[in-house]
Amino acid sequence: MAGREVGVGIIGYGLGGRVFHAPFVSAVPGLRLVSIMQRSGDEAAKAYPSVKIERSIEGTLADKSVEVVVVSTPNETHFSLAKQVLEAGKHVVIDKPFAPTSEEARALGQLAKNKGLLAIPFHNRRWDGDFLTVRKLLRESAVGRLVTFESHFDRFRPVPPGGTWKEAGNPAHGMLFDLGPHLVDQALVLFGAPNAITASVRADRDQTAIEDAFDITLHYKGAGGKGLLAHCRTSYLACDNSPRFLLHGTKGSYKKHGLDPQESTLVGGAKVPMLGSSEVWLQEKESDWGKLTVAPVPADPAMLVEHQVKTEPGDYRAFYINVRNAVLGTAPLAVTAEDGYRVSKLLEMARESSAKGCTLKVEF
After folding, report:
1. Is the entire prediction scored with pTM above 0.90?
2. Cis peptide before 97, with omega less than 30 degrees from 0?
3. I want to staple 345 with a disulfide (CB 3.0 to 4.6 A). Which of 31, 44, 102, 283 is the partner?
C-alpha cells in the first residue's frame, strides 16, 4: 500500500489554489491531482486540462478516488468545509487559518482523531528558504545566545483594494489571521510554546474594515534562564520594508531582507518542476542573501566581521511530500491539528492582549 498513488481534490482556485496548492501537488510523485472545484470560470480547466473540474463540494466529496481534500477558500468557510470533508471520510489540508477560532480548531482535530483521519494546517512557510536559513543559524549558535528575534511580513497598501473578501470586515479576515498564522507558527517551530504574550492589533490605515497591522511579542525563558523575546510584526503601511528576519545574540546579529521568492515566481508564470527531475527549483539570488555580523572576540566589540549567508533552498513540495507520506503511513505528520490549534489560540490571545492592554500568561 505504501507505493500507491494518493488522489487529491482542491476546493477553491483563487490565489491559494492556483499558486500554493495545485502546482505543488502536481509536482510530487505519489500524489495525483484528481479534481479542482471552481464554482465559475475556466482558469483551472485551462491550466490543468486533464483534471476534473467540479462546480460544487458535493462532487469532490462523492469522488472515491479523492483521499485528500485541500480547502483553499475564504477564511470564514474553513471550519464548515473542513468539517464536511472529514465527515465524508477524507483527509483534509486547510489553508491558513486552520480555523477562525481555537474552539473550532480543537473540534476539527478531535473529529479527525475520532475518524482516524488527518486534519492538516497548511503552514507551508516552514519551508521558506529564509526560515530554513534561520533554523540552521540557530542550530549552529551563529549569533551566540539569542536575545531577540524579529519576524516581519510587511506590505504597502495604504488604500484597501476593492472586490476582495480579504478586505471585508469579519473577525476571520485581516492580517492577524492572514499573515499571523505563518509568523506565529514559525516562532513555535523555533522556540516552542511561550510563557506569555503581549500584542497590539490595530487598524492603521485611514480607511479599513480589517485589522491591518499587529505587533505580537512572545515571551520565553531563554538559555541559562535569560529572557528571549520573539517579535512577530505586520504592517500594511510599510513603504520601505523592515528586515524579514532580524536576530540579535551575545556574539552578533543576522539580518535578512526580502521574502522567499516562491510565491512571486509562481505568480509570474513559472512552473514547479516534478520532484526528482534534473531541473532545480528556485535558488535565491546572491544579492538577496542575508548578512551575519559577529564579534569574534566579544571583549573587543569594535572588531566586527560580516559576511553574506547563502539562503537555504525553499521548497513547498516538501509540505506535500510529508502529506503523502503521512497518508501512506510511512512518516509522522509534520504539521498537526494541535499546531493549528496552538496558532489559533495565540492569535486569539493577541487580540485579547491588545484589547486589554496587558500581557497574558500562555496556557494551552
Report:
1. yes
2. yes
3. 102
